[in-house]
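Morning run. Coffee first, then this:
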Amino acid sequence: MSFWQNIYSHFDPVAFNIGPFAVHWYGIMYVSALLGAIFIAKWFVKKDRIPMSLSVVDSYFLWAELAVIFGARIGFVLIYDPNTSYYLSHPWEIFNPFQNGEFVGIRGMSYHGSVFGFLIVTVIYCKIYRYSAWQLLDLVALSVPLAYTLGRIGNFLNQELVGRVTDVPWGIYVDGVLRHPSQLYEAFFEGLMVFIVIFIYRKYKKYDGELIAIYGITYSIGRFIAEFWRQPDAQVGFIYGGWLTTGQLLSLVIALSGAALYIYVVKNGKKNIAKYKNNNLKRLKKKI
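And here it is:
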């Protein structure tokens, strides 16, 4: 247990160097998550016989993943970064991977920012290629959770988004302070558990759009719970009552949006089925 508690003193967040460039484990895990999402999506397309070509999966996920990166970075700058005003006046610095002449990569990503970027690009993609947004979104709901787990593990390896102070035996020392390994809690609650729920629910799905709604609800619940062990961002802190964090507030918004979307999808699906039956009945009466 002592080795685990002091794991950060035994682990280098830099995996290797290519000349002057340091390749961090976080970057490796982030790229693995993006590629993993595509692999998982293709697996489900084949396994569940989803009427979608693999070329569509490739093109859509390329669009979506670029949007996720841009949205996550911009979201962090607008929501969490203490230097928001600087970045707004120097927008070219938002994606600058260098600091003081040293390559450090692009740091600071917001999940909730990535959601907005992803949704905007999905709408644009479906309008251009005239594809079903609900079908694509349901595929995303199936493929993202496990890939997202890798991203949270990347946060852990990068020694960031640390947990709150604790005395539990599985805590880890961060700068001499024992803290919850909250990144791993998030990997479990926001990744693995969400995947299990959606994986099971997909067998009961009746209408396109249900899975993405379930994803929004379950992810938000998992994030809300995990935030109780995660140290709030120092520049933001708690935003209400000494316990509510920005992440929890945004998760409540997405959870409510997911619930509203689920109700809409089911009602609209039932309405379309009833309309289809009525049209068939009218045709049958005309023939008679």
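The mean pLDDT is 89. Good start to the day.
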